[in-house]
């Protein structure tokens, strides 16, 4: 399986994240990259397909914000990473902002996702990596994009959950733009892919299925319940399968069967897998109990759907096992 990766994805160097009332070392750090690169071997560089594929998913004002946010932060006299700290709890309306503080809270939904001087560059090349792997998949039936930063928590006009650009959504839109009629996205990260869900919630051409920790107990808390099934044209095209903390392979396998049946019924031309290895038992921020060998079982089941399949990296924070878990997952294809 061809693997894509660009060294410019290292430019995002989060200085920390805020939760439980204090700063912690960033879970989504560059050590993850080396763990994965060591395990998967040779990678290829993405081409630069420009901003247009990003614009199919993200609003122009959000892209302008993301590109300039850290510079605005510095101009405002701040040091270190730009962090949101005040959020519009009431429903938002479009408005112009003069303060970077306001923009950060408007476009960001948590305090885990700092914007540093290299965040735009890294997120841009993470998205280009997804696009390169998409085109390899369209040509050859499958590929892996080592996306970092990840993407599935980012919506059309928001960042959060270590995600700034939604790589899976950008790949899905590019596939549609190049003539595919229907795409399915299967999200097997531990956390619900709220950004991807939001982007396609009222669309019938992109089916979204997600297996994740129940938002009753886990981040991102405000999305991911089973009764979120899509709306308008997208009614029935969103399938959430929340699972309890402590989930092991037997229960996971049942949910995977349900997800594959659901997305199979949508008759997609292409499957995009948002893959997180944070379902592993030893993950430092997550609470499922999958084992390394289970990743091959998951991917074997996915591969048996017989669809062209693009795998994109999302989370996975146990650096000591990340390489093995990713390699095990890819081995099933
Ligand atoms: C990103 B992905 C830790 C709080 C951190 C952010 C989690 C982001 C997960 N207790 N919250 O889906 O792997
Ligand atoms: Zn995750």
TrEMBL record:
> What InterPro entries does UniProt report for this protein, alphabetically?
HDACs, His_deacetylse_dom, His_deacetylse_dom_sf, Ureohydrolase_dom_sf
Kindly give the Gene3D superfamilies that the UniProt entry links to this protein: Histone deacetylase domain (3.40.800.20)
**UniProt keyword terms in alphabetical order:** Hydrolase, Metal-binding, Zinc
A Pfam family that this protein carries is: Hist_deacetyl
Which superkingdom heads the taxonomic lineage of this protein's source? Answer: Bacteria
Q: Which residues form the signal peptide?
A: none
Cofactor(s) needed by this chain: Zn(2+)
Tell me which residues make up the Histone deacetylase domain: 32-331
**Similarity field:** Belongs to the histone deacetylase family.
> Protein name, please?
Histone deacetylase family protein
């Amino acid at each position: 399986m061809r693997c894509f990766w660009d060294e410019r994805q290292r430019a995002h160097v989060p200085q920390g994240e805020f939760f439980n009332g204090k700063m912690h070392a960033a879970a989504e750090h560059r050590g993850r990259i080396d763990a994965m690169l060591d395990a998967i071997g040779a990678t290829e560089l993405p081409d630069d397909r420009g901003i247009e594929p990003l614009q199919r998913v993200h609003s122009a004002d959000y892209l302008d914000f993301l590109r300039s946010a850290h510079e605005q932060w510095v101009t405002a006299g701040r040091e270190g990473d730009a962090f949101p700290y005040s959020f519009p709890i009431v429903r938002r309306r479009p408005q112009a902002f003069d303060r970077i503080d306001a923009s950060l809270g408007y476009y960001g939904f948590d305090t885990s996702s700092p914007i540093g001087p290299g965040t735009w560059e890294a997120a841009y090349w993470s998205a280009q990596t997804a696009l390169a792997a998409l085109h390899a998949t369209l040509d050859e039936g499958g590929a892996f994009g080592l996306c970092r930063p990840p993407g599935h928590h980012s919506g059309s006009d928001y960042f959060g959950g270590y995600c700034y650009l939604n790589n899976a959504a950008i790949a899905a839109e590019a596939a549609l733009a190049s003539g595919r009629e229907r795409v399915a996205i299967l999200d097997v990260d531990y956390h619900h892919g709220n950004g991807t869900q939001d982007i396609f919630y009222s669309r019938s051409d992109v089916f979204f299925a997600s297996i994740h920790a129940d938002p009753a107990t886990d981040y991102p808390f405000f999305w991911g319940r089973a009764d979120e099934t899509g709306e308008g044209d997208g009614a029935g095209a969103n399938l959430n399968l929340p699972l309890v903390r402590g989930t092991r392979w037997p229960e996971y396998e049942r949910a995977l069967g349900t997800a594959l049946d659901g997305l199979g019924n949508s008759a997609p031309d292409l499957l995009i897998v948002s893959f997180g290895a944070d379902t592993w038992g030893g993950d430092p921020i997550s609470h499922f109990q999958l084992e390394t060998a289970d990743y091959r079982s998951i991917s074997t089941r996915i591969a048996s759907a017989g669809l062209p399949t693009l795998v994109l990296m999302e989370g996975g924070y146990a650096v000591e096992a990340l390489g093995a878990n990713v390699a095990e997952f890819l081995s099933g294809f």
